[in-house]
Amino acid sequence: METQLDPMKDDLPLMANTSYMLVKHYVLDLDVDFKGKVIEGSIVLFFETGSQYRKTSRAGKESCQSQLDETCEMRASEPCHIPMTNVSTCSSKMECNDFAISGKEEEATSEEHSNHSNSEQASGISGSKDHCDIENHGNKDFLLVLDCCDLSVLKVEEVDVAAVSGIEKFTRPAKLTGVSQELENLRNQIVHELVTLPADRWKEQLYYFTHCSQAPGCGELLFSTGTWSLEIRKSGIQTPADFPHAIRIWYKTKPEGRSVTWTTDQSGRPCVYTMGSPINNRALFPCQEPPIALSTWQASVRTAAGFVVLMSGENSAEPVLLREGILSWYYYVSMPMPASTFTIAVGCWQEVKQQSFKQTAAIETNTEFSLPSSQTDFRWHEEICGHVEYPCRFQDPAARLQAVIPYRVFAPWCLMESCEEYLLQLIPQCLSAAYATLGTHPFSRLDVLIVPSNFSSLGMASPHIIFLSQSVLPGGSHLCGTRLCHEIAHAWFGLAIGARDWTEEWISEGFATFLEDIFWARAQQLSHDEIKGQQELKALLRWRRLRDEVQNSEEELQVLRPKKESTGELSESGASVVKHGLKAEKIFMQVHYLKGYFLLRSLARTIGEVSYLASLRKFVIKFHGQLVLSQDFLSMLLEDIPKQKGSGLTVESIFQNWLDTSGIPKPLLEEGETWKECQLVQQVSGEVTKWIQTNQRMRKSSKKKMKQDEVVFQQLLPDQLVLLLESLLEEKTLCPRILQCLERTYQLREKDAEVGH
C-alpha cells in the first residue's frame, strides 16, 4: 500500500500513475488573458498503455487491480465528488459508489470544486450516496491520475480520433459490429499506431496529432481534482488497455498558480513566463510529471497583437493573424522530454539584431577552434542511439558539423542596447566553445530572453531557449559569458541527458558548473597557464561558498543522493516523491552545484583532463535522449580509467565520500589549501594586506598625512575582486574612507552583479 502524502510536508509528490498509462504527446490550444491573468483552453493527451500493466495483463490484470484495491482501503470513508458539465452524459445506472478515488492525497474541498461549472449537479447527490461504498464497488473502474495543481478543470472528454479524415491508414482490418467496445478498441488502436510511427515519419505524425486533437468529443469522463492531482475515470472501464487513449481536458490556470508568474517587464509592459517553479508545470497544464514520462508536444497560443510568444519548441514560430488584434503562435518538439522542460514566455519582447556583417565576423572568428582536436572521439556518432526513436541530431551529418546553431536574442525595449554590447557577440563564441568540448548540439536552435527583474536566479535553460537575468548584462563580459556557458552546458546535461530521479540534481547542476569553466576558457581563447590560474581562483571562491553553506544549512539538505540506494525507485503505480522538493530554503542552496562540481573536478584531476573530456563525450553519445542515475556515469567513467590511475576509486567509495553524506567531502578537505598558492590568489592576498594596512593608517591619521603616502593598488579581474571584497569583509572594522577609496580604485558601481553583491 502506497504511503499517503501530506502536501504540507517538504517532499514534492509526483502523483501520475505512469506504470499504467504513459502520455506520449500533448496538444495544447491556449489563450493568454492578461486582464484576468489566466491562460485557458484545452489540452489533448495521447497515451500508451504503461509497462506495468502490459507485463501483468496476460496474467489477469493484477497490477491494475492491486492499485485500485490499495485505493479502496485508503479512501473508503471519504466524500466523493462527481463533477460533470452535463449530467445527461452519465449513464443512468451510474452511482456514486462506482467512483474510485486515488488514495494518494487529500480530497479537494468543496470550495475548490466551486470553480467547476457543474458544482450544482455534483452537490445534488445526497443521502446515502454522500460517501462512496468503495469496499464493494470501488475496484471496478480504472483511475487515471495526472499531476495537477492550482488549475480549474472545467470538463474532461474522450476524443473521437476515428472521425478524422484519412485516419483509416492507422487501423488494422477488424470485424466492426458497431458495438461501442469495438469502437473504443478502434480508437485506441489508432492512437497506438500513431504514437509508435517511426522517426522518419514525424511530420506525418504531427499532422495527424493536429487533426486528431481537433476531432469531436465522444463522451464526457468523470473527474475529481485534489491538492496535487486530477483523477479521471470512465464508468465501466476496468483496465488501462480499455481506457480512452486520447482525452481532452478543458481548463484554465489561476492567477495565483505557481507554475507561471504574471508581472511587468523592465519597460513596464505586462508579461507572463514559466520561472522554474519547484512544482514545475502542473499549475500550467495537467500532465505526467515523473521524468520517465518522456513525451513530445505541440502548442497553439493566442494572444493580443503586440505580444510575442516564445516557447521551448524546435521551430522559430511566426505569428498568424487570426482576426483583428489577435495573433496565434504555433510551436512543436519532436524529441520526447519530461513535461517539466516545457517553457513559455509571453511579453512585448523585442528581437535584438546586429548588423549582418558583424554577426558573420563573430561566427568566423570563433569557428577557428570549433572542431575538437581529437576528432576521432566524434566517431561515436556512428553508433546506434540508445534512446527511444525520434529524429536525432546525433545521427544527422549536417547537424554534427554545426559549431554554431541559429540563435536569437529577445529583451524588453529598454534593455536592447545592453544586449547588443556583449551578449550578442558572446553567444556564437560560447556555442562554438561548447561544440569544441562536447560535439553535436542536441538542439537545433537557441533563443535567449532577458526576463523580468523578479526572476530569482541568474539563468534557466530549457530546450531551445535560455532565460537570463538582467543582472548579467552590466559590468563587462565576464558574468554574462560564464552564465551563458553554464546554461548552454545544460543542453547536454540536464536536458538531452536528464536525471531519472530528480533528487539527483547534481547530475545537471554539477556538470553545468564544471563545464562552464571549460567552455568559458575556450571562448576567451586563453593560454594553458591563464586557464589554470582562472580555474584555481574559481575553485577557491566555490570552496569558500561551499564551506559557508555547509556551516549554515540543515545537514539533510547537503546530501546529493538523499534517497541513497532507493534512488530511482518508483511505487508500483509509478508515483514517487522528490525528497525536500518543496523545502523553501532549498531554492537558494548551491550545494548540488558546488559538491557536484568538486566531484567532477576531482575525477578530472585523477585521470587527466584530456581523457576525462573524451569520457564525457563518450557518455553524451551513449546516453543522450535518456534518463540516468549517478552510477550510470560513474561506472562508465571508471571503466575507462587505467588501474594505476584509479587509485582505488569505486562507485561505492564515491557514493560514500561524495554523494551520500552531508558536509564537505573528505577528499576535498585535503585539497582546500592548495588553491591559495595560485598566482592570481597570491596577488589578491597582497592587495588585501595593502588595504588592511591602509585601513589601520586611515583610522589613526588625518587626510593630509595620508595623501603624502599614497598607496598604489593593482587592477584585478572580476573574480579576484570578489575574493578581495570577501576577504575584507572578514575584518572587524573598515573605516568609511576605505569604502570610498575601494569604490574609486576599482569603479565598483560599474562592475558586474557578483562584485556588486
Automatic annotation (TrEMBL):
GO cellular component terms listed in the entry, alphabetical order: nucleolus
Chain positions covered by the region annotation Disordered: 104-130
Molecular function, one GO term: zinc ion binding
Entry keyword set: Aminopeptidase, Hydrolase, Protease
Keyword Hydrolase: yes
Biased composition (Basic and acidic residues): 104-115
Limits of the Peptidase M1 membrane alanine aminopeptidase domain: 441-658
InterPro entries given in the database record: Aminopeptidase_N-like_N_sf (IPR042097), AOPep (IPR033577), ARM-type_fold (IPR016024), M1_LTA-4_hydro/amino_C_sf (IPR038502), Peptidase_M1_dom (IPR014782), Peptidase_M4/M1_CTD_sf (IPR027268)
SUPFAM superfamilies (alphabetical): ARM repeat, Leukotriene A4 hydrolase N-terminal domain, Metalloproteases ('zincins'), catalytic domain
Short name of one Pfam family: Peptidase_M1
PANTHER family xrefs: AMINOPEPTIDASE O
Listed name of the protein: AMPO Aminopeptidase
Organism of provenance: Platysteira castanea
Lineage of producing organism: Eukaryota, Metazoa, Chordata, Craniata, Vertebrata
